[in-house]
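Could you join me in thinking about how sequence relates to backbone shape in a protein? We need material for that, and I hope you will provide a protein of your own picking. Label the sequence line and the structure token line clearly, so we can match residues to local backbone shapes. Would you write everything just below, so we can both look at the same thing?
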Amino acid sequence: MVTIRPIAPVKKELNEYVKFPIELYRDNPYYVPPLIFDDVNTLLPSKNPALDFCEAQSFMAYRDGKPAGRITAIVNPMLNEKTGRKEARFGFVDFVDDKEVVDGLFGAAEEWARKRGMTEMIGPMGFSDMDHEGMLVEGFSEMGTMATIYNYPYYPEHMARLGYAKDTDWIEFRITVPDKVPEKMSRIAELVMKKYNLRIIKYTSSKRIKAEYGEALFELINEAYAGLYGYSALTKKQIDYYIDMYLGLVRLDYVSLVVDAEDKLVGVGISLPSLTKALQKSRGSLFPFGWWHLLRALKGKNDVVDLLLVAVKPEYQSKGVNSLFFYDLLNLYIRDGVKFAESNLELEENLHVQSQWDYFDKRQHRRRRAFRKRL
């Protein structure tokens, strides 16, 4: 027998909810667990400032009393007001290959959305672009990353059966780090810096980068990503939350800031040594030894780097500013013995972003999808 139960937004219930996929993928070599406390905090109203204006309800499915699936339904009124649509989102979705389980989960999420006047459901997506999004539809035998979702091939089959259709796709690339910075890229970067009076700045102190550019960095992301699919602008409270969360975690030499003559932020590139293997070893937990695996991945030898984000002010886009990030960072990757970079998600129609990989040997190895359904 299958039962569907709403999950209260409290730590005890959310811990079981967040740990469900870690058990589901226990023997899968490609799955990368989240940090459990991070996902729990994302779903806690007392922690996540997105829940100041969003509504959300999580549901778990049980087959004969045992956990069999999960889903979170989200309504973001601020985004709906911007788009003029009545959309609900679904995210944090995982399930066993069981029609009754899947139907029960999506039935509960869709009914919750209808009761709030929503006419469409899209996903997988979170509260903001800082959350995981996109269901894997190609690349099931490729190692995942900390920034992406992994799911079994039967997931998209159930989506089609339920009447969900493609809304958009993201693609991902595995890029080979060259032995030296391509000469053409160096030449372009130097010309761009001279033409627009730009320079690259680096930090060695998390406290300083937070104080001097933390707010400007996330305001820049809001500005640069405003027109992208499903982007929900970060509020001041969310910006403060992410400054504390992310700028204390990043490895600062792998962060590249570009400023103009007045020291105003023009662009940012953030990368991080891959935490994939560390998260797999820790199974998403910091204790007792998870912190050690993560610290070793951040500080020790690591031959893969995750490109987490690149953002450039709209007035500087298509002017070669992106070349400055790689002009800066490639030498560090080469110094550290990095062999591959993971691009993470790029919208399939964003050919301008994809063109930056033309300098390198690359392989498009994963594709993921956002689905939409009329309710």
About this structure: The mean pLDDT is 95. Residues 155 and 170 are 17 Å apart (CA to CA). The chain has twelve helices and 14 strands.
